[in-house]
Design a protein that fits this description.
Helix content: over 70%
Shape: globular
Oligomer: single chain
Number of helices: 18
Structural class: mainly alpha
Order of helices and strands: HHHHHHHHHHHHHHHHHH
C-alpha cells in the first residue's frame, strides 16, 4: 500500500476502526448487512471516528490559534490593504472558531477596531466554511483532491464576497452600537508553552461539549439515510437527473444549525446513496455558513440590507461551487486529476 493510501484510509478514514467496530458488533450477534445492524455499525463507527478527529484537530488548531489572539489578529490585519487584506482575513478564518455563531463576536470586534467592513466579512465567511477541520474531515471521506479544491473554492468565496461588500460601501448599514464602540489596543502577555497547551486542552473540552450533540444528531441522521432511505429516492431528489438539486440542497441547509463535524456524516450518507458530490457539499456549506441562528445573531450587528447582501453573496458562491463539483465529479472521485 502506498504511503498516501495508508494516510487516506487508515489514518484519516480509520478503516481499522471500522473493521474493529464491525468485528465487535458481529461477535454480539448483529447482522451488519441488515438494516438494524448496518445502522448501528454506521452510527458507532462514524461517531467514534469523528470524535477522535474532532479532539485531535481542535487541540492542534487551538494551539496554533494561541499565537493569534484577537488583539494581535487586529494588528496584523491592519497592516494590509486592498485585496491582500481580504486574502489574509480569509486565511485567518481557517484557524478560528468552528461555527458561524462563534465567529460573529470576532467579526464585531474586528469591525469595532476599525478594520474595513469588506475585510471583516471575508473573515466571517471563511471561518465556519473552510476551517482546517473541514479539510481533514473531507479528506477522510472524499479524498485529498476534493478536500483541497473545496477549501480553495471556499476561500475564493470568502475573498470575493468580502471584496464585493467592501466595494459597495455598506458601512452605513452596520448598527450604530458596533460603529460607535471604542476599541482599546491592549498588549497581551506572551503565553508560555505550558499555557498554550492548557489553552488548547480547555478549548478542546469546551468545543467538544458544544459540538458533540450535533455529532450524534448528524451521525444518527446519516445512519437512517444510509440504511433506511431507498437509494432511488436520494437519486431522484439530489442525483444528476435533478437540475435543481444544488439549489434545493442550499435552501434546505440554511434553516439548520450545525458545524462541519455534524454535517459530514449526513453528507457521507447522502453521497453513498447517489446524491451528487457538489449537491452534498453545497448542503454542507449552507448549513455551516448561513444557518438561521447565526443570521439572527448577525442581524443584531448589521441592518437588513447588509444582511441580505451577505446572504445573497454567500448563496450565489455556494451554488456555483456545487455546480462546479457536480460538473467534474467523475474526474475528482475517480482520481483522474
Amino acid at each position: 500500500m502506498h504511503i498516501w493510501e495508508f494516510i487516506q484510509y487508515q489514518l484519516l478514514g480509520m478503516k481499522w476502526l471500522e473493521h474493529l467496530v464491525g468485528t465487535g458488533l458481529s461477535s454480539l450477534g448483529l447482522d451488519l448487512n441488515g438494516r438494524i445492524g448496518g445502522s448501528i455499525h454506521f452510527f458507532v463507527y462514524d461517531a467514534l471516528k469523528i470524535t477522535l478527529l474532532l479532539c485531535l484537530l481542535i487541540f492542534m488548531i487551538s494551539y496554533v490559534q494561541s499565537y493569534f489572539p484577537p488583539e494581535r489578529s487586529k494588528r496584523i490585519l491592519s497592516r494590509f490593504h486592498g485585496f491582500s487584506a481580504h486574502i489574509l482575513s480569509a486565511l485567518l478564518g481557517t484557524v478560528t472558531p468552528f461555527c458561524s455563531c462563534s465567529s460573529i463576536p470576532l467579526f464585531i470586534g474586528f469591525t469595532r477596531a476599525g478594520l474595513p467592513l469588506g475585510v471583516t466579512f471575508s473573515f466571517l465567511i471563511s471561518s465556519p466554511m473552510v476551517d482546517l477541520g473541514s479539510l481533514v474531515l473531507l479528506m477522510s471521506i472524499f479524498g485529498a483532491q476534493v478536500a483541497i479544491i473545496y477549501v480553495a473554492l471556499g476561500l475564493v468565496i470568502a475573498v470575493t464576497g468580502g471584496a464585493i461588500i467592501g466595494q459597495l460601501g455598506m458601512e452605513k448599514h452596520v448598527e450604530p452600537f458596533v460603529r460607535a464602540a471604542d476599541s482599546a489596543d491592549i498588549d497581551e502577555p506572551v503565553p508560555t508553552r505550558r499555557e498554550r497547551l492548557t489553552y488548547a486542552k480547555e478549548q478542546t473540552l469546551d468545543t467538544f461539549k458544544k459540538v458533540f450533540p450535533y455529532i450524534l444528531a448528524g451521525v444518527g441522521i446519516g445512519a437512517v439515510i444510509h440504511n433506511w432511505i431507498p437509494e432511488s429516492w436520494i437519486e431522484t431528489a439530489l442525483g444528476r437527473d435533478n437540475p435543481f438539486g444544488v439549489l434545493a440542497a442550499t435552501i434546505v441547509g440554511i434553516p439548520m444549525y450545525a458545524d462541519i463535524f455534524g454535517t459530514i456524516p449526513v453528507a457521507e450518507a447522502l453521497f453513498a446513496k447517489g446524491a451528487q458530490l457538489g449537491t452534498v457539499l453545497s448542503f454542507m456549506m449552507a448549513v455551516t455558513t448561513l444557518s438561521l441562528p447565526s443570521l439572527i445573531m448577525l442581524r443584531k450587528a448589521v441592518k437588513p440590507a447588509l444582511l441580505a447582501l451577505f446572504i445573497g453573496v454567500c448563496a450565489a458562491g455556494i451554488i456555483l461551487v456545487g455546480c462546479v463539483f457536480n460538473a467534474f465529479q467523475y474526474m475528482l472521485i475517480k482520481g483522474v486529476w
